[in-house]
Every structure is written in C-alpha cells, then in structure tokens.
Amino acid sequence: DFAEEIHCGQSNSKGAYTRIIFGEDAEPGEIPWQVRLRMTFRSPDSVKSSFCGGFIWNRNTIITAAHCVQECPQSPNTNVSIVACIGDRKISDNKDGQVCFNALSYKAHPQYSCTTIKNDIAIIKTQDMKVPYFSDDGYGSTNTICEPSLSDYTGKSLFVSGWGRYSHFHEGISDVLQKAPANVVPLTMCRRIYPGIDSTQVCLQGPEGQSVCNGDSGGPAFYVNQNGFAEAVGIASFATENCPWYGIFVYTSVAAFRDFIDANV
C-alpha cells in the first residue's frame, strides 16, 4: 500500500519550499495538509458565511482557529455548518483534485475569549478522509502534518500557507494556494505591539520584514525539519488591521494545546 510509505508532513512536490522570499503560488501537492473551510452561520434573522484555513491532523480531524467556527459575541440560536475541502489548490477550479464534504462536528476551546483572542483553537471532526494520498501530478494530494517536536520554535524559519490576502493592495483572497516564509519573533519583542501575548501564542514576521498576510485565519504555520517533514507550529489567529509592512501576525501555539487536541481527536 503506497499510503504506508508516506510520512506525516511529507510534500508531494519535488522542489518544495525552495528559496521563497515573498508569498507565491504553492506547487500542486506541495502543502497536502492544507484545508479550505467555509462556515455558514444561520440564525433566525440572518445567514452569514465566512472563509478560513485549517490543516489535517489525522484521517478524521482538522485543526483550525476557534474564531473561525464561533461568532463574537456568540448568539444562542445560531446553527453552524462547515464545509471542508482537502486536496485543493485553485479555488475556481473544481476539477483540480479537491474533495469537499460536510464536517460532522466541531469543538472550539472552552476558554476561547473573543476579547483577548486567547485559546484560539478548534477541532473539526470529519468522516474518514482519503489521507494520505499522493497523485502522480501532485493535484488532489493529501497528507497529515506532523506533531510539533519542540515547545518553542523561536529563531526558526517557518512557512505559512493559505488563500489569504496576497498583497498589501489587494483586499480579496488569492485564487491559488499561497506559501510564504516566516520567522518566529521572540515574545519580548512581540509584546511591544501586543502586550497581552503569552507562551500559548507564536508571533511571526516575514524574513524580509514583510507581513505574513498569505496565511488564512485558522491556517497553518509549519517548520520543515532536517528530514524534510513539516511540523505543525501554529494556527493563524490575528494581526493588526490592513496587514502593514513589518506587521506581526499572531498564531496559536499547537504545542501549547496538545492536551486539548489529544483529548478531542
């Protein structure tokens, strides 16, 4: 079985993560743990929808941000439905290998706060996904991301991915999945901008000083270890308005919430 030979965090792209400085299109199969999520919030008087990223943890678990699945403030009569797409690269192309399905259930962290944006993590349960799966041309490939091996990635070079804002001048989302490099900013430096940050969060900035706007809310920040496998480091949580140059993006630390993840997968 070919799937047995696929390691977590393994890319199905030959030149994965080579020397990117700014955000650019991901190659087919390069980020096979990436998930695209569409939430619909239905209440008696309104229907709203929103878009987020996420990543594949195991065959029936996706991890994303709590703020993606929970409205602020939470209204009691809101019904949330979630459609997840895996193996996707180009949003406008429904035939590029993507598989979309309704999530079975979700759980936001019980201590998630709308005001402080702490504990910004949620777990989505799905039917058994076709994971891992590597196609010959990369399209439609899926894989789990590896668990974090470190509790602190300060000083490491990471990558972020998503269909988020792909330039300072463009409000829309990108049609093609984007990847961008990012460096972990020490918490002491991050607190100059966000005084309330703590060790359950990870602060990221582009290596050339550019903001990390290429991610989506809920999408992954990952570290490619010496074996070439991607480890989950963060979940995109929030940034300052308008994504300024030298802007710092705050991610929820995956390592800090291992107990919550393990209890709910």
Q: Can you walk through the features of this model?
A:
InterPro entries: Peptidase_S1_PA, Peptidase_S1_PA_chymotrypsin, Peptidase_S1A, Trypsin_dom, TRYPSIN_HIS. GO terms for molecular function: serine-type endopeptidase activity. Residues 20-265 form the Peptidase S1 domain. The chain has 2 domains: 34-139, Trypsin-like serine proteases (Thrombin, subunit H, Beta Barrel); 146-256, Trypsin-like serine proteases (Thrombin, subunit H), CATH 2.40.10. The protein is globular. The two termini are 25 Å apart. The strands form 2 sheets. Strands 6-5-2-3-4-8-7 form a 7-stranded antiparallel β-sheet. With 265 residues, it is mainly beta. A hairpin with a 2-residue loop joins strand 3 (46-58) and strand 4 (61-64). 6% of the residues lie in helices and 33% in strands.
